[in-house]
Amino acid sequence: MARRKLVYEGKAKILYEGPEPGTLVQYFKDDATAFNAEKKATIDGKGVLNNRLSEFFMNGLQRIGVPTHFIRRLNMREQLIRQVEIIPLEVIVRNFAAGSMAKRLGMEEGTPLPRPIVEFSYKDDALGDPLVPEEYIIAFGWATQQDLDDIVALALRVNDFMAGVMHGVGIKLVDFKIEIGRVWDNDFMRLIVADEISPDSCRLWDIETGRKLDKDVFRRDLGDLADAYTEVATRLGVMPKNATNITKPTLIN
Length: 253
Ligand code: TMP
Ligand code: ASP
Known about the structure:
This protein is 28% helix and 32% strand. By secondary structure, it is an alpha+beta fold. The strands form three sheets. Strands 8, 9, 10, 11, 12, 13 and 14 form a seven-stranded antiparallel beta sheet that branches. Strands 1-2-3-7-6 form a five-stranded antiparallel beta sheet. A two-stranded antiparallel ribbon has the order 4-5. The longest helix has 24 residues, at 145-168. The mean pLDDT is 95. The protein is globular and about 55 Å long. The chain folds into two domains: 6-84 and 225-244, 2-Layer Sandwich (Phosphorylase Kinase, domain 1); 85-206, D-amino Acid Aminotransferase, Chain A, domain 1 (2-Layer Sandwich), CATH 3.30.470. 34% of the residues are buried. Thymidine-5'-phosphate (TMP) is lined by residues 90, 92, 98-101, 121, 129, 175-177, 201-203.
């Protein structure tokens, strides 16, 4: 493979310069981290699964008119995306109490919320991605009030889509995180869904059994993460069973 210019390396993905200006190649690693990278592991097949799942969700969003950075998948681990200017916020949507919200408010995990709640964390690993009020976001110039209104509208559309898709395969969408990017078409700025949408950034519970099918399996040592993600991919018809377990060339009749 020709050497490509590395643009950015994160905990789970690498961005390379794309083939055309305004594009990037997004590479999905097998690395898993939690609690601000205090806990780390390599999980065979995770990158392949998240590449496929993020493609599936981003394509679905585009089909219902939600703009995303996704252009096309290139191979098992890479996809071509539009280059965006990332807004330094983790946009979190919650349907049921879990994780940091359950802890902060002393709620039992799984308690239904009166309506979907959108919240923002400031993207800063050193600070542990602290929750920030809209006042901070506007005062510090990370986004304007108009941007925030647009981001909340986008996030709720993503929530409706994701919750519906998941419900169709017997999975409850407890919460998720998205990131939003700015793109310019001439002088006109638009906000689009960027980064990834995968079980790394969602809480997904089996509706019947409550089994966790997301990164909490890793965070809380609940079993095999790749098994959980494969279950999600298989239910969605995104990936045939055992597709990530192929380790050597096999004869295809
Ligand atoms: P939390 O309960 O830890 O605040 O997380 C809420 C949801 O957002 C959960 O699905 C995990 C996701 N999330 C990320 O993917 N990355 C992050 O940095 C944060 C803060 C949350
Ligand atoms: N904050 C996220 C988590 O708890 C991501 C990370 O810390 O790496 O999983």
